[in-house]
Write the structure tokens for this entry.
Amino acid sequence: MSESKPTAHADQDRIERQSREEFSRSSAASEYRSHFNRLYPRWYVYNDVHFDGRLTSPRISIGLTSPRRLSQTDLTTDYGARTNIVLAERMVFGTDRRLVLTDDPTAEGLLRLIDDRLLGETVKQFVMEVHGSLEEGWDGYGPLYAREATRIGATMGLPEVHPRRRGPRLTGMPVAAAWPHAFRPEGYYLGHVSFDRVHLRGKAGRSVPRQSVVPGVYEYLYFLTATGQHARLLDILGREVDAAKEARHPALAAAERNPLDPSGMVLPLPVIDRDWLAWNCGCVRAIAEGIRTRRAFDGMPILADALQDAGCEDEVLLGHLRAHTDHTANCWALRLLTDPT
Ligand SMILES: [Zn+2]
């Protein structure tokens, strides 16, 4: 995709986010669906009431979290969302019997806890998106998080929140990572949950690897297939293919981003002559688009021949198309020829 079209990009991201949300709310397994139908509307309310609607709708999922966390927020580029809010399935489905004391999955106290974790992660999302900070030195819940939590908590009658600190100061106080649930008054969760036997704070640090928090991906791909959204399906799978290739071959990723000289220095992008693209009914561009959308990179030498016949003598460009290397849809040469603006 071209960087020169941020609006088209933003639109596509929004469409993907909506599609993902629609999938979660209508087609996920039923025990998930009822939660998503509560959680997404609730997230929109939090965003409007507490953040003036400034946040971009996240992907909300129910899955694995780090052992000491009931929820977490990760940066993601999946499905147009920038952030992925994960709620621990052991909390949501009540399988952690030390934490959840009721058998009723719709018990009011349990739902209150789930909502509180969504609110806490929405604050975290705000810090990530609006402040652009991961607050890494604070395990992700530092002064920025504490400030927002304090501001919102004040509207709900909750006490001031302090970021985690090393040393004895504020020892025994709940830490920001446990906001709001640890700040709620006694009895707020109606005895349906208990924190006495779970260890939710302490050295919990790193979040679990991303691979382990993507339950539902196959369901989503199935949903796209079953609803005939093949273009979007191909687009998602194609990007996965590119990402996997680039992860396996970092040198390929670099060579596809920009033209490089033999020593690896970045060269300026060749200037595309409009006459090349107009030549012979626009066949250069048509071939380039065909290769790019189908990822049919074995056609690159044919593209080079057509380009040369159209009058191009740029050795950097022709050399890249004829090089015996793999390519991705991010290929700078294909980008230039399909979107020369
Ligand atoms: Zn390439």
